[in-house]
Structure formats: structure tokens, C-alpha cells
Design a protein that fits this description.
The complex is a heterodimer of chains A (169) and B (271). Chain A has six helices and four strands, in the order ααββααβααβ. Chain A has 169 residues and is mostly helical. Chain A has a three-stranded antiparallel sheet with strand order 1-2-3. In chain A, β1 and β2 form a beta hairpin. The longest helix of chain A has 37 residues. Chain B is mainly alpha-helical and 271 residues long. Chain B folds into three domains: 116 residues, rbstp2171; 56 residues, no CATH class; 55 residues, no CATH class. In chain B, 54% of the residues lie in helices and 8% in strands. In chain B, strands 1-2-3 form a three-stranded antiparallel sheet. Chain B is elongated and about 90 Å long. The chains are: A mainly alpha (169), B mainly alpha (271). At the A-B interface, α2, α3, α5, α6 and β4 of A face β1, α4 and α5 of B.
Chain lengths: 169, 271
């Protein structure tokens, strides 16, 4: 970019024009880069989810307002946030089954896994898994998915919650 | 929930604001909340320990109890509501459900956690840090000093002091002083910066005798001592050992022995 700051002979109006032009160029360049990376991102997502179309993604966006993508190495996932209503319904199921199993430790672990599967079944939009598919997943996949879905559903870590809070003076 | 911020502060004391951004496509949501009282905190803590499965209902209870104002768009996107109620029994009549049910699941959880976290320290270090912050705040503020003095001596609550006029405040301070001055070593004197500078210049030559005489007079006035002999002993020994060489220094042992030798004839406050 032309150095205008230390040139005493330059007209100040010209300086403004040069700066404005540079700013416009910068914004255009940034938009192009963003557009390119967006396109690359969507291409990557669609390549990894062959059954999913752009129309379907747009429909999900209209329905769920925000959809998310996570790449866990061997698999990538498209998911949405969980609502409070769904969370409560799933917790009610846990309470019922906990009463049925009367605190049996093994049963509690099974309930936890059942909750994870219910969460994934509800929030993961692609790939759609069948019950028999869960056992074929790598051991930590469901945990990682649960963490990320809950985070995007605003289950925020304590430090973050406190940083968002301010005392009203 | 309604009420201006000032009214809410009057009623609930210290308030907090939490703002969570990028919620769905509705932007940000904010909540103004109060903290739990100590007894409320204790009861929730007990439930958390004994009935961990009921977490979401406790979160909701804390949220309802402490959140005083919510800033959430009045209408949430209908597509989203339709999508999330699909397959859930009992959601046909959406109007009967609380608005929080239609927000992302963790919002109530995060707000309830902020309330719990700020309501009581989790560790001794946090407790000490909170005390240090409060000490620093009070040191900076003459009004806070006055408040703590009146709370300690006359048993006022800070909120009761807030309802006083300035005249009543000064009356209370003087009353509290007269009680404290019963022990002559604690005079309460607020000084301006100029007075402090003058006092420093005088290099410690402040006439404490006057203060001590006042203290003894106060004791007389409120019936602390009616016996002339005892007063004489007090005047002789219970004075400060400051720079004035005419005033004898305190000799507690001697004073104690002399007072013990005198038979007790009266009770404090009975004249």
C-alpha cells in the first residue's frame, strides 16, 4: 500500500481517498476469502455426507435455526442443539428407569448410555444411526458427541458462565 | 415479573446480570437475578447431595426463585417450536409450558449455576477472597464504615440504616459512640484529609486527655460509676500513655489491685 502518512506534500483529501480505497480493497479481499473458505467447508461437509443435499441443509437451518458440524477423525457429524423441553423429557425417562432399577450401579451405567443414545438420536441430523450402529462406533464417540451437543445447547462451563455475569452497580 | 431496577434492588439487595449471546437465531438472552440466601442455599445443597436425579427440576426452581427479569424475545421461531415438540407427549398445548422449555436446554442450567456459584463460596480460599474484597470496599467508603459500626454496636441491619435520614444516622452514630466510649480506648472520630494533614503536622500532640475526660463524663452520665473513690482511681489509671508527661501511664496491675481492694457496692447501669 502507498505510504501516505509521512508525505508532507500530499493533499489531505487525497489521503482520505487512498485510505478509503485501501479499506474497500481489504473488505472485498476478506469477503472473497470468507466466501472461498465457506464454499470449501460446505464441499467438505457434503462430500462426507453423501446422502445430504444443500436443500436438506437449508431445511434443517430453517427448522433448527442453527446446525453444527464436527469432524471426529473417522466420522463427521451434523447436529443441532437440544431444547429444554427435550432435555426434561429425557431426564424424566432416566428418573423412571432409575426408580425401576433401584440404584443398581450397572443399571445406572446403562441408563447413562441410554441417555447418550437418546441425545444422539434426537440431535444428530446426519448420519442417521440405527440402534445396532452404536456398538460399532469407537468407544469415545458418543461421549464426544454428548459434550459438544450439550455445549452448543448452552450448557456452559462454570468459568464461562461467571465471565458472562456482571454485578449491577 | 415487573418492577424497576431500583425497586428490585431495594427489595432484593445486590443484583446480577447474565447475558448469553448467539442463542438460536434470536440473538442474545439476558437475565437479571438475585442470589440465594444462606438458608435457601443450604436447602438446595442438601437436595443436590441426596437427590441428584432431580437436577433439572432444582435448576428450574432456583431459576424461578432468583431470576427477577428476563430479556427474551416474546415470540420464539415457530419452526423451532414445532421441531422440538415433535414426539414429546403432553406438548400439544404449548401455551401451558414455561418459555424456558423452548430455549436451548442449557440456558436454565447455566443461569442456575451462576446463581449457585455466586451465592456461596466453594472453598476456603474463595471465602477469604470474598472477605478481602469486602474489606477493601468498606475501607474505601466512610458510609460503609459507619454502617458496620452501627451494625456492630446497635445491632442494626444495613437495610435499616439505608432507610434512615442523615439526621437519624448522625443521632445513631453519636448514641453508638457514647456506648463505645464507655471503653475510653475506642473513640470514633472521622477526619477529613485536611484535618489528617494538620494532625500529622502537630506530630502526635493531639489532646487525648480531652477525649478521656469525655469518656469518664459519659461513664458518669450513664451510671457507669457513681462512687467518687472509684472515679478517682479510674481517672488516675485509665488514661492513655501519650506524649503528655503530666498524665501518669497506665499500670493495669496496680489499678486492678487497687480496684480489687475496694468492695463492690454497685452494678453497672443501676446508678
Amino acid at each position: 500500500m502507498q505510504d501516505v502518512t509521512y508525505n508532507p506534500g500530499i493533499d489531505p483529501r487525497q489521503t482520505k481517498e487512498v485510505l478509503d480505497q485501501a479499506k474497500e480493497e481489504f473488505v472485498e479481499e476478506k469477503q472473497t476469502v470468507t466466501k472461498d473458505s465457506e464454499e470449501k467447508r460446505w464441499k467438505f461437509i457434503l462430500d462426507n455426507h453423501p446422502g445430504v443435499t444443500v436443500n436438506e441443509i437449508n431445511r434443517w437451518k430453517a427448522q433448527f435455526k442453527k446446525i453444527y458440524f464436527i469432524n471426529l477423525g473417522t466420522n463427521s457429524w451434523i447436529f443441532r442443539a437440544l431444547s429444554r423441553l427435550e432435555h426434561k423429557a429425557m431426564q424424566m425417562d432416566i428418573i423412571k428407569s432409575a426408580q425401576a432399577s433401584q440404584g443398581d450401579r450397572l443399571a445406572q451405567v446403562e441408563e447413562h448410555m441410554a441417555y447418550q443414545e437418546a441425545l444422539v438420536r434426537r440431535c444428530v441430523l446426519s448420519p442417521r444411526l440405527q440402534p445396532e450402529d452404536y456398538s460399532a462406533l469407537e468407544a469415545g464417540t458418543l461421549d464426544a458427541l454428548q459434550e459438544t451437543i450439550l455445549f452448543h445447547s448452552n450448557f456452559l462451563p462454570p468459568d464461562m458462565v461467571i465471565s458472562l455475569t456482571e454485578e449491577i452497580v | 415479573m415487573s418492577g424497576s431496577l431500583t425497586d428490585l434492588r431495594k427489595e432484593h439487595g445486590q443484583l446480577y446480570l447474565i447475558r448469553i449471546d448467539n442463542v438460536l437465531d434470536i440473538g442474545s438472552v439476558s437475565f437479571i437475578f438475585r442470589l440465594l440466601t444462606l438458608s435457601e442455599y443450604r436447602s438446595y445443597k442438601r437436595i443436590f447431595t441426596t437427590r441428584p436425579h432431580t437436577l433439572s427440576s432444582i435448576e428450574e426452581e432456583i431459576f424461578e426463585r432468583c431470576v427477577l427479569k428476563s430479556f427474551v424475545p416474546e415470540e420464539l421461531p415457530q419452526d423451532w417450536i414445532d421441531a422440538i415438540t415433535e414426539g414429546i407427549v403432553g406438548t400439544e398445548d404449548n401455551l401451558s409450558l414455561p418459555f424456558t422449555d423452548f430455549l436451548p436446554a442449557g440456558i436454565v442450567y447455566s443461569v442456575a449455576n451462576a446463581i449457585l456459584y455466586l451465592s456461596y463460596p466453594k472453598t476456603v480460599e474463595q471465602f477469604n477472597r470474598a472477605l478481602d474484597i469486602e474489606r477493601y470496599r468498606q475501607l474505601q467508603d466512610v458510609e460503609m464504615k459507619t454502617k458496620s459500626f452501627l451494625c456492630a454496636v446497635l445491632g442494626y441491619k444495613p437495610s435499616e440504616i439505608d432507610r434512615m435520614t442523615f439526621k437519624e444516622l448522625t443521632e445513631s452514630i453519636v448514641l453508638a459512640e457514647s456506648i463505645v466510649l464507655f471503653r475510653p480506648e475506642v473513640p470514633l472520630v472521622f477526619t477529613t484529609q485536611e484535618e489528617q494533614a494538620v494532625s500529622k503536622k502537630r506530630d502526635g500532640k493531639v489532646n487525648l486527655e480531652e477525649l478521656e475526660q469525655d469518656a469518664i463524663a459519659t461513664r458518669r452520665a450513664i451510671g457507669g460509676s457513681s462512687n467518687e473513690e472509684e472515679l478517682r482511681i479510674e481517672e488516675k489509671y485509665f488514661t492513655r500513655g501519650h506524649s503528655n508527661s503530666d498524665t501518669p501511664k497506665i499500670d493495669p496491675k496496680k489499678a486492678f489491685e487497687e480496684l480489687q481492694a475496694k468492695p463492690k457496692k454497685r452494678r453497672v447501669g443501676k446508678g
